[in-house]
């Protein structure tokens, strides 16, 4: 079943990594499509075989012939038929299962198709070719019925649609598990044109990766909010997640001491007799103080589990971007570690996530056996997708559905507005970064050189008593050269953190449309209640249950929003403090340097 | 004797000033060529008559038919025939007299020809069409003999070749004496693209103006250094200019108290029943404390007299640029006053110039009669051109001609090198000015707006306890807007003075090639001494006299160079102090503002 594929973009193999260099327009033969991690094995016309990023090619003939046109129009009740909640693990089955999702590209797609969900509210300036502009937000919301609502809900099944989306949860220790580093879309260009770290943004592989993820978890991907709204089973007692009424409204239960952890000490490991290399990070939780080592792919596995389990109620920010090349370079490792740290900190700060079994498993690696057992258990967890709401217990009276809808609309508006604001700041910051690292220091350097040049001309005057001025001019010139360097280096000391924080929030805000989408779909369902009762599709009691359930969902959403707000206020206060503190230091240092330069000039 | 002329550039008449609007390519008839000040009266095809800048037109037929081709090759001794030293005032005679100068365009020339001497060492970036790139410096120096040396010397007759050169010294009170404001080439673009003051740089009228000036003073224009080297008459006692040996070498005699004056209080005056307007500046000398009023044309007259009398020994910096349009606008008047002040200060600081009769006349205007008498006397002064050296008396032993030549070469090298250095700094400064007034403040403004925007989004969250952060963010945003404004306004507070000083020095340095050229021509003459004696052209005694005279010239040049160096050291120390002081304040103020913004953010 060998398929031909057309190469869409040039790709240069990284030496020693079994990659295949291909040119745009070249036709290659896919020899293994099940590599995972956004890669396929392919053979070129010369007979050379190697790995090529999936998004760099376009299959000339789709292999499993399941097209969107064949999607059956499922009825309301089909959507929460019991079979859909069962766990299916075979890829074959998953791809077929995909057919129920009208919005999901279910054949290996071209990059443009594969990454539809990448950015819900705006087109990235820095988007690689693979990220096109089919925005989720552009779809009508809150007006769907039946199938349409299911379609909207299914958008969540694509996973959280921000910059990065993880690859499929590969099995342990398969040969290709080094390929956990496919860089996807960009965030802001961290090192500007300097090309620091040599990281090349090659376009996202997440479209197809996400497909694999959703294939694996049909409980999360194949059903709408009805599954919860009309479910019979109560959650087990030990899993209960309470929502309290706090000063600011509904809040999660926060632990007395906040969990924290440090991601540090990246080390290069290798396997297969050194043929395959990877980076391992040390994760040190504040609870145990026992370090555990994890590779990026482990983080990614954790992300997938959290997304699967909590994603309907809690926006799970994506991991830092994947990367095809340069992933062993120091700068890249440093930045990835910083971002993994940021991600872990955010997860630790979340009372529900940090307290979850799967998160604790990640932090408490004892031995391989224990880890594998924990992994299998987590992967078999059936309280995923909308069913997470069945574990939530608000300690407050039921909310009026109108209030529920108003709150939901308000959150939707706010997160959109903030997303715009954050992106605006990122754009401005990116330009400022470029100026500070490009033309501005060059100009200060030229000023410095001009002063020094004049100084050396003056030195040649042959006039007595020239030295004081020429020394002073030289010193002033050197001062401006120092300022040039300071200007160029400053963004790393302040703007960097402002950008990182906003980039993190951009990612987090990118998750909200899906999380809020679940709520909107549920609200639409509840609105149909009377009609459903009238047509005999549900019992009057079901309608009462749905109203109660939507109230629970709203409490969860409010608790999550309040969690978001409180974190946001803390984060922005903190990053602005840091930014301004560094800016003050910067300007003070310049003033001090200039003061010294000034003191060398004398007039009688 | 009406001549046709072709219009080279569009010129738009300023309303109410008797000007004539003409279009490029149009043919006009010159009705009066003796207007002066760089203007001619012309009639267009419709019969309309008005004034047109001389440099904007090209005569299709020269009026006094004296072409360069007809220049007689004057012999060495013809050059200092007694008649050439006599004072001739009729324009008619002057134009004919012009024919002895091979390099001087002696017919009303096109701008390209007329402004050859505009910039000796480099082409201006901001040159108007009238300033082409025929550099004096490109001509071989120090290698001329006989006629060639005369040619080099004659280059001085063009007047000092920097940005501005004055118009002919018009007679008192002729109707057109408002036309004293023809802007010539640019210096640095003071107000950047902002177009402040609305001054349009229309191209220099100085080429032809200088021609008139030199026509009037054949003593200065028609002879080489031989006039002095072999002159018989000793200077009168009261005019003696001594050169002393100071610590740094030969120096002028400096007065005990340095003259100073303040140029202030520009007032618009008018005459001819308000038809003609002009600006009058108040000049207040520190000696008398009695203010005198002078128009630009009076400054210009003074400049011409100083150039004529001292130009061979002392570089006389040009006045600030002339200007055709916008000359009554506030910004322009302010800048011109500032530059007139700078020029006057430099003249006051010069011991020879400030002590001269003509300069004192300018500062001590009593009444119209006294002023006119003084003017006529000054204009009849015969100790002009190289003859100024006959008044100089070094109190030191004669110098060896080889040392004289070495010194001269050294000064030449230094002034060229400094000219390059100054121009380099001006270029850098101009770019910095543009950045500081253009993209940089815009960027800070955008940062400020982005913070404020985020603040207003946060304000809409509906979350309690938002106010502290949003207030702080708004304050930070406003701070960056303030910084934007500071950045945009800062160049006026510091870079402006650095630029003005360097611009002044650029002008001053532009005078040196001519002043040094006089010396080089004299050195070449003296080198020919043996040959001239051998061929019986001069007496052996004349050779001794020439050696003595060249020594005197060298003492004068050294005294002037030492004056230049001491002023330069003072000026650069002073302007760098001012620049850095303002820069320190600027950065300190920013740091202080940011510190305040910082203090508003709180984290627990």
From TrEMBL, chains A, B:
Pfam families reported for this sequence: BAR_3_WASP_bdg (PF10456), PX (PF00787), SH3_1 (PF00018)
Domain annotation SH3: ranges: 1-62
Compositional bias per record (Acidic residues), positions renumbered to this chain: 170-180
Keyword tRNA processing: no
CC per GO annotation: cytoplasmic vesicle membrane; plasma membrane
Main location: membrane
Cited PROSITE patterns: PX, SH3
Keyword tags: Cytoplasmic vesicle, Membrane, Protein transport, SH3 domain, Transport
UniProt cross-references to SUPFAM superfamilies, sorted A to Z: PX domain, SH3-domain
Positions of a 1,2-diacyl-sn-glycero-3-phospho-(1D-myo-inositol-4,5-bisphosphate) binding: 295, 297, 336
InterPro entries: AH/BAR_dom_sf, PX_dom, PX_dom_sf, SH3-like_dom_sf, SH3_domain, Snx9_fam, SNX9_PX, SNX9_SH3
Compositional bias segments (type: Gly residues): 194-203
One Gene Ontology term from the biological process aspect of the record: plasma membrane tubulation
Domain of life: Eukaryota
Transmembrane segment boundaries: none
Gene Ontology MF term list: phosphatidylinositol binding
Region: Disordered, residue numbers: 98-203
PX domain mapped to chain residues: 259-369
Membrane topology value: Peripheral membrane protein
Family of this protein: Belongs to the sorting nexin family.
Protein name stated in the entry: Sorting nexin
């Amino acid at each position: 079943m060998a398929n031909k594929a057309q190469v869409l973009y040039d790709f240069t193999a990284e030496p020693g990594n079994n990659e295949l260099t291909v040119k745009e327009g070249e036709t290659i033969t896919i020899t293994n499509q099940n590599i995972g991690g956004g890669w396929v094995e392919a053979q070129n016309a010369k007979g050379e075989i190697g790995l090529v990023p999936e998004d760099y090619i376009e299959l000339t003939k789709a292999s499993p012939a399941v097209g969107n046109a064949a999607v059956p129009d499922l009825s309301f009740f089909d959507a929460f038929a019991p079979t859909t909640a069962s766990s299916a693990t075979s890829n074959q089955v998953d791809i077929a299962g995909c057919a129920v999702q009208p919005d999901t590209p279910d054949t290996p797609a071209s990059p443009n198709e594969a990454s539809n969900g990448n950015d819900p509210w705006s087109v990235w300036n820095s988007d690689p070719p693979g990220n096109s502009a089919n925005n989720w937000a552009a779809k009508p919301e809150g007006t769907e019925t039946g199938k349409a609502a299911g379609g909207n809900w299914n958008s969540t099944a694509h996973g959280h649609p921000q910059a990065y989306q993880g690859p499929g949860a590969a099995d342990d220790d398969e040969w290709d598990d080094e390929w956990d580093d496919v860089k996807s879309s960009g965030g802001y260009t961290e090192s500007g044109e300097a090309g620091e770290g040599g990281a090349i943004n090659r376009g996202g592989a997440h479209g197809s990766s996400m497909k694999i993820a959703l294939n694996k978890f049909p409980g999360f991907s194949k059903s709408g909010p009805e599954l919860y709204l009309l479910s019979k089973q109560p959650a087990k007692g030990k899993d209960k997640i309470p929502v309290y009424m706090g000063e600011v409204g509904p809040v999660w239960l926060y632990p007395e001491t906040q969990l924290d952890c440090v991601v540090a000490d990246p080390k290069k490991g290798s396997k297969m007799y050194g043929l395959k290399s990877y980076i391992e990070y040390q994760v040190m939780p504040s609870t145990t103080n026992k370090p555990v080592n994890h590779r990026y792919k482990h983080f990614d596995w954790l992300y997938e589990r959290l997304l699967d389990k909590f994603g309907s109620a809690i926006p799970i920010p994506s991991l830092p971007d994947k990367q095809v090349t340069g992933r062993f370079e120091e700068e890249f490792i440093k930045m990835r570690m910083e971002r993994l740290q940021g991600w872990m900190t955010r997860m630790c700060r979340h009372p529900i996530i940090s307290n979850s079994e799967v998160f604790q498993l990640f932090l408490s690696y004892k031995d391989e056996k224990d880890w594998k057992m924990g992994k299998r258990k987590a992967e078999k967890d059936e309280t995923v997708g909308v069913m997470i709401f069945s574990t939530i217990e608000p300690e407050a009276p039921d909310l009026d559905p109108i209030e529920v809808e108003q709150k939901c609309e308000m959150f939707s508006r706010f997160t959109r507005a903030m997303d715009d604001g954050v992106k605006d700041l990122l754009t401005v910051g990116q330009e400022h970064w470029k100026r500070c690292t490009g033309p501005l220091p060059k100009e200060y350097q030229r000023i410095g050189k001009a002063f020094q040049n004049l100084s050396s001309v003056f030195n040649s005057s042959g006039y007595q008593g020239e030295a004081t001025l020429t020394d002073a001019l030289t010193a002033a010139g050197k001062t401006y050269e120092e300022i040039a360097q300071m200007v160029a280096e400053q963004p790393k000391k302040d703007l960097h953190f402002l950008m990182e924080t906003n980039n993190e929030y951009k990612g987090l805000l990118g998750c909200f449309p899906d999380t809020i989408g679940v709520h909107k779909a549920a609200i639409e369902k509840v609105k149909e209640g009377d009609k459903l009762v009238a047509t005999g599709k549900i019992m009057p009691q079901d309608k009462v249950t749905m109203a109660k359930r939507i109230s629970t969902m709203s409490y969860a959403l409010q608790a999550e929003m309040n969690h978001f707000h409180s974190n946001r206020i803390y984060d922005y206060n903190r990053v602005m403090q840091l930014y301004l503190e560094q800016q003050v230091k910067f300007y003070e240092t310049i003033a001090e340097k200039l003061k010294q330069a000034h003191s060398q000039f004398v007039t009688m």
